[in-house]
């Protein structure tokens, strides 16, 4: 199967922002920006920025002097990023584009961050070389990739496999099953980076009111159209099966499932 590139339609990008950003991508951005230091003098690029949550958390924390630049392949994600930052338009510069051919001059940035985008790049080497090109020598690249599927996503994939198709079940796990995780340090070194270190970050995915939020989790995923296309009864069965499998993760109105990401830090040489 060709690599999934996590492409969403415009309505799905809205569901992504409403559900997934709140449940996991904001908490992960906060954990990442607590684990590394970015000063307000840094000129920062957010690669595969989605709806721009890393940029937004960075702005809330340190208001960099230079506008934070975000780039993503998906026009719907970038429109959403523009919309949710319309009150502070000068703080951000949003671009639609591919990581392997970015419209920025050599050495434009002192730091680049890529949160959960790498596993969707069809050519990782070309992507890393391009990120290296737009960084200054001595600049920093921070990358996070999920290390394994969480209990919640394993239960969801099982239910999708039963009610939709095995292919969609596998696709729903694509963010968590990147096969080259252990090879990333070597790959970084072969693409113009050095001094690579990594650490694991575990964050809790908090799915508030799961009966309402699980359908949104599915809608904001590339398998959304396949699942929604099977109708409301299938969606209801998937939700109730996931809730039964994950009953020990329920806390009041929340389903809480920890997720572990590997963070890599590298220096451009
Ligand atoms: C799981 S989302 C993560 C988005 C964001 N970093 C966040 O934390 O919310 C993955 C993103 O990678 C983007 N993406 C996939 N392939 C890409 C490419 N070749 N160039 C740029 N962005 C890409 C997708 O459009 C999607 O927005």
Automatic annotation (TrEMBL):
Molecular functions (GO terms): demethylmenaquinone methyltransferase activity; S-adenosylmethionine-dependent methyltransferase activity
Stretches assigned to the Methyltransferase type domain: 45-143
Lineage: Bacteria, Pseudomonadati, Pseudomonadota, Alphaproteobacteria, Rhodobacterales
Keywords: Methyltransferase, Transferase
Any Pfam family: Methyltransf_11
Protein name: Demethylmenaquinone methyltransferase
Catalytic activity, EC: 2.1.1.163
Organism, scientific name: Leisingera aquaemixtae
Catalytic class of the enzyme: transferase
Gene designation per UniProt: ubiE_5
GO biological process: methylation
């Amino acid at each position: 199967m060709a690599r999934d590139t996590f492409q969403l339609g415009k309505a799905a990008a809205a569901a992504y922002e409403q559900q997934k950003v709140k449940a996991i991508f904001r908490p992960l951005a906060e954990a990442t920006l607590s684990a590394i230091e970015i000063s307000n003098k840094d000129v920062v690029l957010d690669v595969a920025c989605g709806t721009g949550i890393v940029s937004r958390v960075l702005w809330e924390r340190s208001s960099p002097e230079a506008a934070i630049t975000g780039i993503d392949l998906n026009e719907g994600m970038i429109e959403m990023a523009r919309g949710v930052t319309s009150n502070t338009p000068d703080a951000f510069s949003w671009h639609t584009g591919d990581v392997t051919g970015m419209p920025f001059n050599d050495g434009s940035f002192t730091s680049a961050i890529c949160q959960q985008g790498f596993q969707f790049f069809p050519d990782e080497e070309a992507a890393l070389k391009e990120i290296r090109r737009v960084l200054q020598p001595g600049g920093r690249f921070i990358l996070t990739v999920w290390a394994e599927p969480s209990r919640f996503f394993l239960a969801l994939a099982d239910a999708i496999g039963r009610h939709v198709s095995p292919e969609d079940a596998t696709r729903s796990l694509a963010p968590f099953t990147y096969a080259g995780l252990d090879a990333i340090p070597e790959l970084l070194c072969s693409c113009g980076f050095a001094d690579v270190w990594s650490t694991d970050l575990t964050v809790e995915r908090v799915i508030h009111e799961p009966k309402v939020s699980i359908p949104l989790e599915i809608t904001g995923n590339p398998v959304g159209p396949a699942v929604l296309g099977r109708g409301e009864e299938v969606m209801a069965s998937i939700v109730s099966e996931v809730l039964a499998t994950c009953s020990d993760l329920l806390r009041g109105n929340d389903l809480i499932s920890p997720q572990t990401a590997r963070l890599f830090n590298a220096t451009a040489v």
